Amino acid sequence: MKKFMDDNFMLNNETAAKLFNDYAKDMPIFDYHCHLSPQMMYEDKPFENITQIFLGGDHYKWRYMRSNGIDESYITGDKSDYDKFKAFCGCLQYAIGNPLYHWTHLELKRYFNVDEVVTAENCDTIWEKCNKVIKETKMSPSTLINQSNVAVLCTTDDPIDSLEYHKLIAEKGHIKAKVLPAFRPDRLINIEKTDFVKALGNVCGRDIKNYDELIAAVNERIDYFHNAGCRISDHALDGVPFNRDYSADDVFAKKMNGESLSDDEINAFKCETLIRLAKKYSELDWAMQLHIGALRNNNSAMFKKLGADVGFDSIADYEIAADLSALLDAMECNDGLPKTILYTLNPKDNYVLATMLGNFQSAETAGKMQFGSAWWFNDQRDGMVEQMKALANLGALNKFVGMLTDSRSFLSYTRHEYFRRILCNMLGEWVENGEFPDDFDTLGKIVEDICFNNAKRYFNVEM
User: 26: Cβ–Cβ under 8 A, 6 or more apart, which residues?
Assistant: First the structure.
């Protein structure tokens, strides 16, 4: 029987252990998509206790606590930080098969030197040990980022954001990583949900009266982001919008007149706007991320009480192949298909996305079209393995830009270690089974490229 989470945790053969220890372990992290707060990073206030770092904003942990019948007062409510931590420890003890069990113990080991197995009984010991480390090191966001060997960190930012905190972080110099913005224009795209036009016009100093003026204003913001170091955009798409039967100009005019829009009109606006934005991204050599397949804010009562992004989202089951093909083709025909990363929240679409890549690859950029890392609910061993196997079976795994955190937690960089162990174990199994030669020059390059080098080349960020 193997010891719980020893040095060879998840590395089930000699080849896997060699690949991880000699090639993956010490590679820097290029975190090209996260939801960390630039303001928190700049202010860099020391945390007061383990609960603030451990449970603050981590909806993965919140969902698990709810599934164990923990009252909301211990999750997002008014119970003390100690009581919340104790409640989490009490249910984590039984989290067999849940990636949270591994993530949490990695966090404790790497940042707090705590090797105890979490139980309700030793909650007080872990609480005291962690808080002692926090106090002695004055642990803050910069402490955790610098300790994690992060080279580049891309946040998620609204088009009208001033990006002042990114600039202040660079001036302050307390974070070793380059902290860069990423362009997230969901409020622009989702014309049916938000009234974004006035806010955009205010930032750009113009009165936006028609669709062309809207696009001109957005392009102005893209240039602003580019000058601030941004090299990537991100779009959260429920399904894939494709409809060219309606004019985006007419749809925009109806919206501005306060008229209701049909689903087809909404999709036509989204489709045309994505095509226009993609053209601009391509001109600037940006990468475009398309996150497809989330069903958000399912519990309307809890949405009214707590708002979005607190753990009440799930996987959608849209049919996406035909519309995704048509959308990418329209971008290509417009001479504006940028480097693109496709993510699916529904693993049923792994092969849809993995095969879609090959339709639009280009010699100008190796791996131009990427199958994004196993996302959100797939961010666990089975999901990661299935995503990488689909990519390997149908494309070029060696050009994969690898892992990202997609997290609001400053502790989540241990998930890169988790990913790297899973990657090395999968490759090790193939070698040990005689399915690939034990050529460590080649294997080592593949591992190092997926861990960091591919992302560095792909996003073209000056280091």
Answer: 149
* CA–CA gap between residue 271 and residue 330 (Å, rounded): 9
- H helix runs in 208-347, sequence order: 211-227, 248-256, 263-283, 300-306, 321-333
pLDDT (0 to 100) of residue 57: 80
Tokens of 136: 């002695």
C-beta separation of 149 from 26 below 8 A: yes
Q: What are 177's two structure tokens?
A: 């990583």
| Residue 131 DSSP SS3 | helix
Contact present, 39 and 181 (Cβ < 8 Å): no
Of 262, 265, 309, 231, the C-alpha closest to 59 is 309
Segment holding 370, helix H or strand E: strand 369-371
User: Residues of the chain whose pLDDT is less than 70?
Assistant: none
User: Which helix (DSSP H) or strand (DSSP E) does residue 344 occupy?
Assistant: strand 339-344
pLDDT score recorded for residue 80: 97
Evaluate whether 373 touches 342 at the Cβ level (below 8 Å): no
> Cα–Cα distance between 231 and 21 in angstroms, integer?
31
Q: What local confidence, expressed as pLDDT, does residue 56 receive?
A: 85
Give the span between the Cα atoms of 344 and 348, in whole angstroms: 9
Task: Tell me if residue 284 falls in helix, strand or coil.
Answer: coil
**How many angstroms separate the Cα of 392 from the Cα of each of 18, 41, 247, 355?**
21, 37, 40, 11
